[in-house]
């Protein structure tokens, strides 16, 4: 707010603009990691996992519940018995060799394009929550407006590299048509990269058609503009829905996340090393299939990974074995030269409490040190993915910014200049007024805005505002300041026409969306 | 509770004993790390820090505000000008060369002895809190009974390797005599290792006399039984109180933590690398002095490390630079072959909220991956150390147990057996009933007891108990089940006699205890 000459408080566009100008919403470039990775396996142990996975593929085989895939595999020279495909290790190696190690993941704003793979990494918000905790921390079913709010925040939070897709499930629109509105919301409210729904082969085609309106079909033939996730059914099964969506993406040369869905101990052996061997076999089978569909198309080694409490059957996160398996999977993906996706900030807390904080930070550290390229579910995840928390979304994004800084490693640039301050100040002095400090303090040490480090007296004097409310105040402020990134009017109209046509064609009832 | 033949509920010793038998309070052995450490500096960069630190010691010098130390340094061949000691790098290297790389840290129960240094690591509770959040989460000044409760919990929590000393400040006893009661409480309520107060040279002598009653003076001549922390005043100052306490410990061959007290950006340059160079110079100056006092006595490279918010002046924790500096300091300590101490789970949250969880987990990860040998402040710390939270104490201890498991690395023992379950189960099956799972699930995946991973419906049906209350219920249960580890009656009497005599001799008023 500002105060005019006669002392009247003026609020409004001008005041909001003033605030806006002070908040930097420029996206951080794709992280380029400099911190060494955590690699707990020796080269021999990496080969041990590889050999175990290849044995599984050759002798146990993988079930592809999909006649097209089975025919594709037979044509590609694999042994097919019923629905089981037995994959020779030589064939697997030959196929995955054509997966690009790196590519550029394009955004509609080229300033937000992301180099992908190798030592680059990106943060992508959570998706798929059937509930949200909203701007008042109330848990309820989400709407398209809620989804738009998450897309707006994704656009404004510097450490978020994508608007993802259905961060929350918009319940106010028919399931069968939702993918259209979700995709439009991702595109419209943010000019960062986005994800494509893969809830059915037809839905995937719709997403790809909309991407083609935005980027041009020809451009997509040679450029990655939208990622699609395909989950496996562990152990060792891929189903028709996912395989159909995978084919849609691969045929248009768009990157697919090949993601076994692992509940460690329930659908894998009760062993970290053997779980990784199975998961690795599953990922390899899908990665290989992407190259059967289209040789050279981009593909991403993926997984969704929890361990299961043998007391309750509940999925667990932030546990030591999740960290260890992430480290191992990172080594396997690099061994094959394939970029990889993991899940960040998972947890099972019911509220945005200390448990949520512990779990998220443990996972964030693990996936950073594991060298993941695509850190999905990086903001908002809570309650085992059952809700996306608006407050946690904001705080997670700041934690990602801190993780980003850590992974950039040590800054040596001003080492000599900084050292020269030491004799200036001398024993017993202080650095607060030193020119080097004045010049560098803003960049030298990260100052988290969502953490309150003041004294309890000061905190109480300011109303004893808890972190959930601090984050929700921030979310409301940001949404007030939000400015939509300009979308070409012609493109916008074409997208809306497409949606209108498809909504006429698609009956307003369908199976439930399921994707993780 | 149990129900007798006529249905009457019986509570009491028998029932409590039954519960007690189900909780495993066996201390985890000192962690032996197998996970590779995070080492962001090249050998050349380590030498760059070393050279910068040595330049500081030679040309800027270190102030020792203590006539005895100044005389000792002059005798040792250092250049002394006023209170400033200029330390030649050859002298520093020669002195620190005699610090033992490893030793055994003895507990009164030999089963709780700890191998120390190298790839071993121990978790030590927080100390020094002027407030606690108690069993009802009420923030207030602590008493000796509160302190005893923390010592009891330290004794029972498997991941805690020490009862430390004044986890909280007991305000119901005169300051000048507190160190006696604190030490007695540490020794009496736990048979793990403990720490010695260093609030003055005389207080340190009292602690060492009490340790001698427990272990024998002669035993102490060749065995480490109590650690003392000595803080520096950064930049580059050591004061008389700390140096006097240091001499007391070194003379009896007990390990001293040489801990510069760093508020990054305020008492060091606004640069991570230059901050480490200064901190390293400070630590080296004190480590070298321990060997002037007594050649070959154990000593520990220490530090207390925060960064300062340049907006508010508040100390910050869980920030990326704290992690990076821990990684660097670990490399420096290993370069010199000296075991090292860091601070774990620091944070500035006012309640046990998501901020506390994030900060603690970020720091836990950093200090584990940095390879610290002595992880002080591993449980209870909150509000920048102003309070110790009973609830957080319990949860932190479980987080340490999870960090412990992670740092042990991958278990390959049953890899082949676990793999053989995969063809048994086959594509689309599940592992829950498989013999391998039944045999291994309890050890395969950590099941945190303080994290609730059930569905929200189940959580609500059970009363929607938040993590703070869950942890406090656990704390109350444990305190009910507590059994004091037997202390020899003669030793106990001798300790009480010593305290009675010293309390007659020491006036019941003194300066405030200050130690961090």
From TrEMBL, chains A, B:
Similarity section: Belongs to the trimethylamine methyltransferase family.
Gene Ontology terms, MF aspect: methyltransferase activity
EC code(s) of this entry: 2.1.1.-
Pfam families: MTTB
Biased composition (Basic residues): 10-20
Domain of life: Bacteria
Species of origin: Tateyamaria armeniaca
InterPro entries the record matches: MttB-like_sf, MTTB_MeTrfase
Gene Ontology BP term (one): methylation
Region Disordered, residue ranges: 1-20
UniProt keywords, alphabetically: Methyltransferase, Transferase
Name of the protein this chain belongs to: Methyltransferase
């Amino acid at each position: 707010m500002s105060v005019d000459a006669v002392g009247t408080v003026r609020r409004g566009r001008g005041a909001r603009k003033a605030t806006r100008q002070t908040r930097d919403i420029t996206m951080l470039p794709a992280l380029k990691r400099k911190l060494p990775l955590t690699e707990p396996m020796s080269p021999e142990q990496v080969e041990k996992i590889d050999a175990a996975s290849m044995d599984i593929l050759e002798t146990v085989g993988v079930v592809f519940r999909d006649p097209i895939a089975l025919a594709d595999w037979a044509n590609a020279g694999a042994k097919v018995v019923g629905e089981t495909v037995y994959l020779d290790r030589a064939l697997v190696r030959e196929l995955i060799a054509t997966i690009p190690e790196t590519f550029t993941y394009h955004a509609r704003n080229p300033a937000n394009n992301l180099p992908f793979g190798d030592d680059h990494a990106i943060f992508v918000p959570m998706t798929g929550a059937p509930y949200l905790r909203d701007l008042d921390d109330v848990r309820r079913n989400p709407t398209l407006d809620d989804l738009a709010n998450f897309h707006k925040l994704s656009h404004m939070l510097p450490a978020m590299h994508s608007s993802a897709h259905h961060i929350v499930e918009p319940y106010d629109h028919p399931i069968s048509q939702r993918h259209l509105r979700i995709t439009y919301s991702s595109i419209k409210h943010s000019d960062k990269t986005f994800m494509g729904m893969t809830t059915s082969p037809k839905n995937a085609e719709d997403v790809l058609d909309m991407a083609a309106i935005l980027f041009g079909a020809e451009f997509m033939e040679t450029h990655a503009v939208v990622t699609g996730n395909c989950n496996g059914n562990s152990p060792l099964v891929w189903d028709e829905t996912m395989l159909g969506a995978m084919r849609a993406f691969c045929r248009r040369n768009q990157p697919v996340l090949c993601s076994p869905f692992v509940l460690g101990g329930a659908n894998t052996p009760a062993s970290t090393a053997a779980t990784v061997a199975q998961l690795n076999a599953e990922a390899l089978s899908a990665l290989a299939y992407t190259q059967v569909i289209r040789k050279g198309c981009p593909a991403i080694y993926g997984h969704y990974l929890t361990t299961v409490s043998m007391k309750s059957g509940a999925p667990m996160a932030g546990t030591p074995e999740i960290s260890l398996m992430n480290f191992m999977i990172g080594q396997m993906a690099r061994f094959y030269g394939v970029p990889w996706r993991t899940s960040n900030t998972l947890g099972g807390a019911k509220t945005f409490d200390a448990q949520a904080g512990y779990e998220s930070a443990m996972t964030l550290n693990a996936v950073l040190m594991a060298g993941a390229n695509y850190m999905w579910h990086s903001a908002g995840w809570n309650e085992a993915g059952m809700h996306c928390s608006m407050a946690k979304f904001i705080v997670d994004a700041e934690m990602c910014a801190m993780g980003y800084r850590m992974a950039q490693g040590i800054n040596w640039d001003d080492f000599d200049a900084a050292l020269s301050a030491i004799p200036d100040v001398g024993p017993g002095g202080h650095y607060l007024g030193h020119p080097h400090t004045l010049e560098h303090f803003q960049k030298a040490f990260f100052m988290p805005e969502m953490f309150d480090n003041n004294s309890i007296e000061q905190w109480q004097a300011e109303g004893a505002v808890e972190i959930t409310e601090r984050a929700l105040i921030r979310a409301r402020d940001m949404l007030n300041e939000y400015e939509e990134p300009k979308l070409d009017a012609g493109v916008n109209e074409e997208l809306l026409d497409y949606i209108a046509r498809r909504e006429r064609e698609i009956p307003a009832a369908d199976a439930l969306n399921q994707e993780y």
